[in-house]
Amino acid sequence: MLTGSIVALVTPMHENGEVAWDALDELIEWHVANGTHGIVPMGTTGESATLDTQEHLQVIKRTIDRVAGRVPVIAGTGSNSTAEAIHQTQEAEAAGADACLLVTPYYNRPTQEGLFRHFEAIATATSVPIVLYNVPPRTGCDMTAETVGRLASIQGVVGIKEACGDTARVTQILAAVSDQDAENFFVLSGEDAQTLQMMELGAVGTISVTANVLPAEMSAFCSAHLGGDLSQAQALDQQLQPVHDIMFVESSPTPAKWALADMGRIPGGIRLPLIPLSSEHHEAVRQRLQSAGNSQ
Question: What sections of 34-111 are H helices per DSSP?
Fold first, then answer.
């Protein structure tokens, strides 16, 4: 089971948009040193939409090789093409990914039965553990708790990153998963600001944007909750909430990438159609990170 603070890793880039491979290596080392419990390369936060397939798989393989088994690597391999999602998942599996994260097909607007068959086809074509990802504000597609419950019965479908915005969905999903499948299926938060509430309802951690900039603090928060120290988890959550908010002042990963560049951890590149963070937000991002701990 994947638990704790799992970072939705940004992809460092030079100003010309090329992947900054050395910076990626250093970023991974920083996360491992600061207690991050798992790493997701090539999720939404990794700008998967604007890396081509070759780059996408190179980032995944580089991450797996650099991590070298120290923490789980959950490769982002989702697509709105089922065939492409199968291809990328197979490649990530061959590269040694511990699991794959697959977002619901975006733009196509499939029915619930279409969603079920999409993920069923991927699970049938691969052996790597599959984590579903539901994020309707990004995709225009909401996978219901009932569909998740059906998918949980498929061998290899092990969990979901839930980011629909409604914390009650955790309870609904866990209720929809059969008793037989419940022991092997988990829910992770996909909304940093709601992670405490979601963990109180049964989620076991988060795939986090904020962990990019505050890895030690997010790790400590999740560890406290999982360890039963709820008062410490609540205190840390209160400390982190202003950062959760500012990380979405513009489209993610724009604020996180700017903050990491400002900290000297990555170059300042980001790919169009995203652009660097507006200067009007710079000082607010700095101040909130400093107030929350800023583990540089």
Answer: 53-67, 82-95
**Which tokens is 252 given?**
């993610």
Chain Cα centroid distance, residue 163: 10
Say whether 61 is catalytic: no
Query: pLDDT digit string (tens) for 119-156?
Result: 999 999 999 999 999 999 999 999 999 999 999 999 99
Residue 198 phi, psi dihedral angles, 5° rounding = -70, -35
Provide CB contacts within 8 A for 240, sequence distance 6+.
192, 210, 214, 217, 218, 221, 292
Q: In the annotation, is 107 catalytic?
A: no
In tens, the pLDDT along 239-273 reads: 999 999 999 999 999 999 999 999 999 999 999 99
Residue 202 burial (C-beta neighbours within 10 Å; 0-12, 13-18, 19+): middle
pTM exceeds 0.85: yes
Domain at 4-292: CATH architecture: Alpha-Beta Barrel (3.20)
Beta strands in 13-69 (DSSP E): 38-40
Catalytic annotation, pick one of 61, 106, 107, 161: 161
Name the one residue in this structure whose structure tokens are 């030690």. 216
User: Of 61, 106, 107, 133, which residue is the catalytic one?
Assistant: 133
Going edge to edge, which strands form the sheet with 4-8? 38-40, 4-8, 205-208, 186-189, 157-162, 130-134, 99-103, 74-76
